[in-house]
Write a structure and sequence with these properties.
Radius of gyration: 11 Å
Order of helices and strands: EEE
Helix content: under 10%
Oligomer: single chain
Shape: elongated
């Protein structure tokens, strides 16, 4: 299985990172912050 994660954007004010995941043609968006 191939998992491809790419950093999509960051926001400096809230320090949230958005990731774009492509898995077998399926696109999922993930976000995280310092509490995660």
């Amino acid at each position: 299985d191939e998992y491809g994660f790419k950093l999509n954007k960051t926001t400096t004010t809230t320090i949230i990172k958005y990731f774009k995941c492509t898995l077998n043609g399926y696109v999922a968006r993930i976000h995280e912050n310092l509490d995660d």
